[in-house]
Structure formats: structure tokens, C-alpha cells
Specification:
195 residues, 2 strands, mainly alpha
Length: 195
């Protein structure tokens, strides 16, 4: 991992991306998941994004910075910009599923899968599959199940594996009701299934 000096998104202190928390204000340095941003007020998200974008302009190929900027854009519902940064983070990245998963989330643009056209669904599923190929997690299987149920089942399209098979895989990998709630909060869609 390339070590870069950036300004702390909270207090402005000079720190490195190797540091997990600022030694002065205890603020997280790099955002690695949407959950870190979900409860953060918008002005704070904007401060994080400004810090990351400044550093990313000097280091445009840094996957961690690009992922963090993408997550900020996703939190602000600026989906096209989020996809752009997640795609930068994906370049020559064969060991981190994060930008692939969040690119798939961004491709829904806050809509239910049923409302997307087939090329959008295919692109979303390709991103999820890439994330699963790198490092499978329960939320990825749930996401694929959600797409298969909301798009393919509702449109009466045959697909294999089925949404039930992906759901079972998600449960087998430790999916909890809290994970489902967090996932739908991130997507901005209602929960329409129970575990």
C-alpha cells in the first residue's frame, strides 16, 4: 500500500494514509465502508471528500483514496461521480472487493432493480460477481439475491442460480437482519423480505 501524506479530514493536521485515526482528533483517516459515512452529517462528508480529492489529484492511481472519494459521492447520492472513482480504484486491483461492490451499489442509483434496463442490471451483476470472485461476503450474495428477486423474478425471467440459492448462500455466510437493514439503508430502498 502506497503511503501518502494528506490533511486530516476533521482537523487539518498533516498525517499519512497509513494512519487509521488522527492522533490529534481521533478521526478516521480513510473511509473503507459506507457504514462509516451513513450517520455522518453532510458537511462532515464534504470535508472528507475535499481532503480526499486534493490527495487523489496528486496521486490519481491510489486505490484507497479513489475508493474513499467514491464512498463520499455514494453517500451524497452523486452516483455517476461515485462510479467514476470506484472504476479508478478497480484498475489493476485484484485483491480488494470494496470498489467493485460499491460500484454495483452506485449503478442502481437509488432505484429498485426492477426499474433498471437489462444492460444496467448486467453491469451491476458483473460488478457484484467481480467482488465475490475476489473476496466473497454475505452482503454480496444478498445483493445478488436481491437483484435476481426484484428484477428477474418480477419480470418472469429464468435465471440460474436462482434468488433463493443466493439467499441461502448469504445466510450460510452469516447474513443477519442487521446486515439486511444496513444494506437497504445504503441503497435507499425498503426491505421487502425477512430472513
Amino acid at each position: 500500500m502506497e503511503i501518502i501524506t494528506i490533511k486530516c479530514p476533521c482537523c487539518g493536521a498533516s498525517i499519512t494514509t497509513q494512519t487509521k485515526q488522527c492522533e490529534y482528533c481521533q478521526c478516521d483517516i480513510l473511509i473503507k465502508s459506507f457504514k462509516n459515512l451513513s450517520a455522518m452529517p453532510t458537511p462532515q462528508v464534504n470535508k472528507y471528500m475535499a481532503s480526499y480529492r486534493t490527495a487523489a489529484s496528486e496521486h490519481p492511481d491510489n486505490k484507497d483514496l479513489n475508493t474513499s472519494v467514491g464512498l463520499c459521492f455514494l453517500r451524497l447520492k452523486k452516483y455517476d461521480q461515485a462510479i467514476e472513482y470506484f472504476e479508478k480504484a478497480q484498475a489493476e486491483n485484484f485483491d480488494d472487493a470494496t470498489p467493485f461492490f460499491y460500484a454495483a451499489v452506485s449503478r442502481l442509483k437509488g432505484r429498485k432493480p426492477f426499474l433498471l434496463n437489462r444492460p444496467e442490471i448486467d453491469a451491476t451483476m458483473t460488478e457484484i460477481q467481480a467482488a465475490m470472485d475476489i473476496e466473497p461476503h454475505a452482503e454480496q450474495y444478498y445483493f445478488m439475491s436481491y437483484i435476481k428477486r426484484d428484477y428477474f423474478k418480477r419480470k418472469f425471467l429464468n435465471t440460474s442460480p436462482s434468488w433463493e440459492e443466493y439467499m441461502q448462500e448469504a445466510v450460510d455466510n452469516g447474513l443477519s437482519p442487521a446486515d439486511v437493514e444496513d444494506f437497504h439503508t445504503m441503497l435507499g430502498t425498503p426491505i421487502d423480505i425477512e430472513l
